Amino acid sequence: MVKMNCIVCGMGINEKNYNFNKEAFINSNSKEKIMYCPFCGVAIEYLIEDGQEIKYDRNKLNQNDLKIIDHAVKLEVFNGDFYKKASDMAKDENVKSMFKALSSIEYMHARIHKKIAGIKEIPALKDMDYSKYNTDEALLAAACQREKHAVEYYKKYKKEIHEENIVKIFDVLSRVEEEHIELTGE
Ligand SMILES: [Zn+2]
Hints:
Blueprint (H helix, E strand, L loop, with lengths): L3 E3 L5 E2 L33 E3 L13 H27 L3 H25 L18 H22 L6 H21 L2
Antiparallel strand pairs: 1-2, 1-3
Bound molecules: zinc ion.
The site of zinc ion (ZN) has 8 residues, from loops.
Pfam family, one: Ferritin_2
Protein name: Metal-iron-binding protein
InterPro entries: Ferritin-like (IPR012347), Ferritin-like_SF (IPR009078)
């Protein structure tokens, strides 16, 4: 297997990790056929041999841009936290492991945004009351809603951002969330 780098999250993909988070994909990677970054979920076209992370010029960002990216960090941490909790709560083993994998992908998205905006600390969000999600169906429905919200967020706010490569990253991550809608919507 050729060693590749994901130019969105910066992780190196090799034969030890290509299958990480496999439960978060409709078609998982195999050694012969890599289709996604196992860490952030982006498609094969962003996995490049000796690839360098997408560069952006932070000087082009104004206060509003930074606010949008800061909110994107919070949105992804919010969803990562939800999936972590949902994975503890789910009864079905497959649903459990899917939530766990989704959690780690959403946290990676938060990490990507943090890096873009130069944010060091992880935002501490208020603890949520999850007690109303007392079945796997309820957890899946809540997950699907959150993914739809994330896609809408990226679509709406990418138009306001003044740096084209960051707009591209918003687009690419939004496509990952679109697959999550499909995964959680069944
Ligand atoms: Zn990646």
